[in-house]
Write a structure and sequence with these properties.
Blueprint (H helix, E strand, L loop, with lengths): L3 E11 L38 H13 L3 E2 L2 E2 L2 E4 L9 E4 L6 E2 L2 E6 L2 E14 L3 E5 L2 E5 L6 E7 L6 H18 L11 E10 L9 E6 L2 H20 L7 E6 L4 E7 L9 E2 L6 E2 L2 H8 L6 H10 L4 H8 L2 H13 L3 H16 L13 H12 L5 H14 L3 H8 L7 H14 L1 H8 L5 H12 L6 H12 L1
Parallel strand pairs: 13-14
Antiparallel strand pairs: 1-11, 1-12, 2-6, 3-17, 4-5, 4-16, 6-8, 7-8, 8-11, 9-10, 12-13, 14-15
Helix pairs in contact: 2-3, 5-6, 7-8, 7-9, 9-10, 12-14, 12-15, 13-14, 14-15
The structure holds zinc ion.
Length: about 475
């Protein structure tokens, strides 16, 4: 019998504030270990935390972007546990009274739309980082105290594909709002996956939790592995145990880490050093005015420009793609033409890289200049691609490049006629095929014409001249 897979996700996203959540230390990735630390973030006796206003505002901005209710009253609590990367032996977090509740995101998988509800978004601090090497384990407290938001979804997803679609949408939204750099390789966004299986009509199964995954691919593989593992346990008459499991990305398996703890095990209590956080409705509304234009609004605009919904979705999948598209349009206002080039040629280049490293390396103005020449027939597709490769690799002015490389398209009808007349005369068999209605033979003539002109012939002109000559 078929099982239903039930997935909920907790996403930890570091906020890109200048300083840490409760002290003035720099919030910076990659600095020399243990240089961005102070008595507050290492919990020296007598040191007192002071809340970072920017962290609060960025958490609220994200909450507003995904339709959360922002609570006027929220409380910071201590989550107590010992681990070497946590110098205070507690983490400042929110439990009972989080900053944001509700909201959600719409995802689309195989053409089916679905709304994923959020339970909450709360503000907390990150822990330090353990570095394991041959000499043993080292600890870097630079990350300790960096502000994080934890975005907790309801268990609304029923497949690995839905989970990944949700994470892509969430990452994209964080980047639109501009509150996190979302670099997975640097751990600034990390995922915990809750997963259970049950038969339709039966109550939810016992769930396991997979901690600290750091790529979409890991999430996808881990969900597929873990749901199959749970189904096998149940099918062989066993019981799924509530526990936290570790995902081993190399082996592609999950392992028991610890049997699942409940929140009472952490002895949460309100942090006596921090007063409750009160944010007024006026304050929340003033933050709302800073919300940038998000993807859905841009999609609606692009459809009005004549793009399909699918193209609009592709272009707005990331803020930087959408910004780039708009910038190219500001120089060359041909939405469909520009969109086609970006979604085909630009994306092809980007997809060769990991998601964190996908940077558009071409200048919007140069691309616009090249596309205009292509649209006007001054260069053909092969020439356009050649120029594009060059301006992507090392920049340059398309007009000059076309001259230097002799890529100007041959639009001289008289000269083309001469060349094509010879090709027609030399290939009676192909002419007969074309006359018999075999349209594919036209590709042969265009190919021959390109060969004779070093790729510069205007292919449309070639076709019409061939048709004219064989009449
Ligand atoms: Zn500090």
């Amino acid at each position: 019998m078929e099982y239903t897979i039930v997935v909920g996700l907790e996403v930890h996203s570091e906020l890109n504030t200048k300083t840490k959540c409760f002290c003035g230390c720099k919030n910076e990735f990659g600095d020399k270990p243990n240089t961005n630390c102070c008595p507050v973030c290492t919990a020296m006796p007598g040191a007192l935390p002071v809340l970072n206003r920017d962290a609060v505002e960025k958490a609220i901005l994200m909450g507003l972007a995904v339709g959360c209710k922002i609570n006027n009253y929220s409380v910071f609590e201590r989550k107590n546990y010992f681990y070497p990367d946590l110098s205070k032996a507690y983490q400042i977090s929110q439990l009972e009274y989080p900053l944001c509740v509700g909201g959600g995101l719409e995802i689309e998988v195989d053409g089916k739309k679905k709304f994923i509800h959020l339970n909450r978004i709360h503000l907390e601090e990150d822990a330090g980082k353990l570095i394991h090497d041959n000499s043993g384990t080292l600890v870097d407290y630079n990350r300790g105290g960096v502000p994080l938001i934890e975005i907790v979804s309801e268990p609304d997803m029923n497949s690995a594909e839905e989970a990944v679609a949700y994470l892509e949408k969430l990452r994209s939204t964080l980047l639109y709002v501009g509150v996190s750099d979302c670099k997975m390789q640097e751990g600034s966004i990390r995922f915990d996956v809750n997963i259970s299986v049950n038969k339709p009509g039966e109550p939810l199964g016992t769930r396991t939790e997979l901690k600290n995954l750091n790529s979409f691919r890991a999430v996808q593989r881990a969900i597929n592995y873990e749901s199959n593992r749970q189904i096998e346990v149940l099918e062989s008459g066993g019981k799924v145990i509530q526990e936290t499991r570790r995902w081993d990305d190399e082996k592609g398996k999950t392992y028991t880490m610890r049997t699942k703890e409940d929140s009472q095990d952490y002895r949460y209590f309100p942090d006596p050093d921090l007063i409750p956080l009160n944010v007024s409705d006026e304050y929340i509304e003033s933050i709302r005015t800073r919300l940038p234009k998000l993807a859905p609004e841009r999609v609606a605009e692009y459809i009005k420009l004549g793009l399909t919904e699918q193209d609009a979705n592709l272009l707005t999948a990331e803020k930087k793609y959408s910004d780039f598209f708009e910038k190219v349009l500001s120089y060359f206002n041909e939405p469909k033409f520009v969109c086609n080039w970006i979604t085909a040629e630009v994306f092809k280049k980007l997809n060769a890289f990991e998601i964190d490293d996908r940077e558009i390396l071409v200048d919007a103005k140069s691309l616009a200049e090249m596309l205009e020449m292509y649209k006007n027939g001054e260069i053909n597709q092969a020439g356009a691609r050649k120029i594009f490769d060059i301006i992507w690799e090392k920049g340059g002015e398309p007009k000059k490049l076309v001259e230097e490389l002799g890529l100007a398209q041959m639009n001289d009808e008289g000269a083309l006629k001469e060349i094509i007349a010879k090709i027609v005369a030399d290939n009676p068999k192909a002419v007969a095929e074309l006359k018999a209605g075999n349209q594919k033979t036209m590709a042969f003539f265009v190919g021959q014409a390109m060969k004779a002109t070093q790729g510069k012939a205007n292919p449309k002109m070639v076709s019409s001249i061939v048709m004219e000559l064989i009449k």
